[in-house]
Amino acid sequence: MSDIRISVVIPTYKEVENIPLISEEIAASLADQNYEIIFVDDNSCDGSFDAVTGLADRIPARMIVRTEDRGLSTAVIRGIEEAKGKYVVVMDCDMSHPSSAILPMVETLESGKQDFMVGSRYVEGGSFDEHWGFFRLLNSKVATWLALPLCHVQDPMSGFFGFEREKFKTCAHLTPTGYKIGLEIMVKGDFNNPGEHPIHFKDREYGESKLSFKEQLLYLKHLRRLYSFKFPTASEFLQFGFVGGTGFVIDSLIYFALQFVFGLEHKVARAISFWPAATWNWFWNRTITFTDRKKSNRLGQWLAFLGTSLGGFAMNFGTYSMLTDYVPFFMENKFPALIIGVLVGMGFNFMVARVLVFRKLDQEMEKEERK
Length: 371
Ligand code: GDD
Ligand code: MN
Hints:
Oligomer: single chain
Low-confidence stretches: 364-371
CATH topology of the largest domain: Spore Coat Polysaccharide Biosynthesis Protein SpsA, Chain A
Number of domains: 2
Strand content: 5-15%
Bound molecules: guanosine-5'-diphosphate-alpha-D-mannose, manganese (II) ion
Radius of gyration: 27 Å
Order of helices and strands: EHEHEHEHEEHEHEEHHHHHHH
Number of strands: 9
CATH class of the largest domain: Alpha Beta
Structural class: alpha/beta
Distance between the termini: 30 Å
């Protein structure tokens, strides 16, 4: 066991101006501590490596240069894997995150009050530079709200966070897509009591931000994964419902088109429009809702799904008929009966689809797929 108390992990890409600045700032804040700084650089080739070597006789800093992998999240994971300290704190290199917050965050972890600490702009006492434009702020806020059900902190997007290194083992299959590695670790690891330390988030002076529009799209993808991880059945049901909703629109459009454009009789139209709509649902459930399930043979799965949908439709129609034929309330109020029918049919479809049509991967295959 090493007796390093704090490992500061800093992902870097083209941060040559900032490396000495952040190192000095950390050294000043952690002067009486046993700590290490680990930079994980993606081969910036801008003198970053020499900058760290130049400091290393005074400051316990080193740099890992990666040439094969790229990206912020995997760099952070690599740094944590190399860390030796009892606590790990991850932060940006660009001076946005104040080093003075490292020690208070670690002390809170040590007290046992909290098991994950986030350097936060959005709790009382936290702030950010004032010239953030309206859109930047809105963007950041919306991204934050979307993540709130996953973890109860005000600033889950923060790239400034810390935890006890032992706990890193509890993070199941990390599959970060994009930038939000702190959120990924907090959601997937065994952390029950995350807390926040207010910080002032300073905009960078040197170098450029690497957060692009593409990263923001990746964030949505990442969120979907985290929701599936945290609320597997509920999130499948929601996606199934969403796909079903779009299928309903297709169904109705075709149903009306066949009658009013092609002059077909309403029952014939009803009987035809079901098929393209059910096919649409099958395709999108295969692509979106049940991405993690077995990729069974298409034709067989499609037929099975159509069968299920017919079954669901029978339940739906049966419920509607029973209610409107025998229950006085629904004799008067047919539309609520229709809604109940739809829900019963959808519940039936959902159950059968997830058990029979989109089968679970076998344990072994599952491991392979997730690698
Ligand atoms: N190794 C490596 N590889 N490091 C990277 C990469 C990469 O591909 N991309 C960025 N970094 C490093 C940067 O050098 C910097 O130290 C840190 O990761 C953050 O990158 P910035 O480009 O400064 O990100 P940002 O300021 O737009 O975003 C920050 O704030 C967000 C919240 O507003 C980050 O902390 C985000 O994680 C955070 O969500
Ligand atoms: Mn930045």
